[in-house]
Amino acid sequence: MPRRTATMLASLLMLIALLCAGVLIPVPYAAMSPGPTYNTLGEHNGECVLQISGHKDCETTGGHLNMTTVRVTGSEYRMNLVEAVYGWLAHDDVVVPHSTLYPDNKTPDEVDQQNAEEFTQSQESAKVAALRALKKPVTSHVIVGAVQKGAPAQGRLHAGDVIKSVDGTAVREPDDVAKLVTKHKPGQKVAFSVIPAKEVAAAEKRGKQPTGEERVTITTAKADEGRSRAIVGIQAGVDYTFPFRIDIKLADVGGPSAGLMFALGIVDRLSPGDLTGGKFIAGTGTIDDKGTVGPIGGIEMKTIGARNAGARFFLTPKENCAAAAKDVPSGLRLVKVHTIDDALKALEKIRKGDTAGLPACTTG
């Protein structure tokens, strides 16, 4: 066999071997790509995304306030080298370490559960922020957020119970509960005044304030860390009573990043007219009970997904602005927001066509 032919054959065989290795050898990476967007003013699977008792139905003006998502590879999927290289080169994909999406210290089920819990919490925070922006009454309650298994409180207190007082002292913040319990020594009794969770749920359905306090006395135990600190084994949290029922119907979405858009959708539904002026606006961002907008992950994927869906404006958390501004999809305008009030002011400008003064995102 001529030397040139042998060299070409050897090179071809080596290339085939490398390609086979690239396809067969898994690498510890995962991929992120633009996911679907959902109009918070519209319908999903035949029902309104936002359902508010006694208020207007889904948007009919053609305006959009779309929340955005990121599509990720599954926890069990093992990317090969060829796919990783393609993802690094592709404009619409991002390749990240597998542990970024699925931490090694958590099972896939635990990751899914965390995402679901964050999504639920984002809905509650969105309701509070929206109603407060509209100056509508929102009543907060300190509640039993969780009860530790085997703790003194197990079977005595239950998740969702409203805690009115501890040893006769009214509680207004979750931290108040721990401060009052730890005034005791382990083995001493502590008295809780609570409204049972079932009474709270019944009151919420009626749109009323929960009533019917009960006294529950619990013997404290010693904390596990060895110090003589008294505990009863609960985690206190906050719940809210709204003046009317607000339901958010959107399944198969997780994480907290839709909070801002849910809040704006609620404000729109509770306001005369519409916030968008018929414009297609998308956005992202967490939101807390005070209306502060927080950063999210996958901002580049979300701006691409928004533009692909038809958005012209994108409400961008202040902390994500620099990253988003590095590669803005053609035809999409980034609008910087830090609070729900910022977002509402921006929507007013967009609605009126006064877009010259919109706060812009920059790379600096």
Automatic annotation (TrEMBL):
Keywords: Hydrolase, Protease, Serine protease. Its EC number is 3.4.21.53. It catalyses: Hydrolysis of proteins in presence of ATP. The active site is at S257, K302. Residues 142-172 form the PDZ domain. It comes from the Bacteria. Pfam families: Lon_C, PDZ_2. Residues 252-350 form the Lon proteolytic domain. Belongs to the peptidase S16 family. This is endopeptidase La.
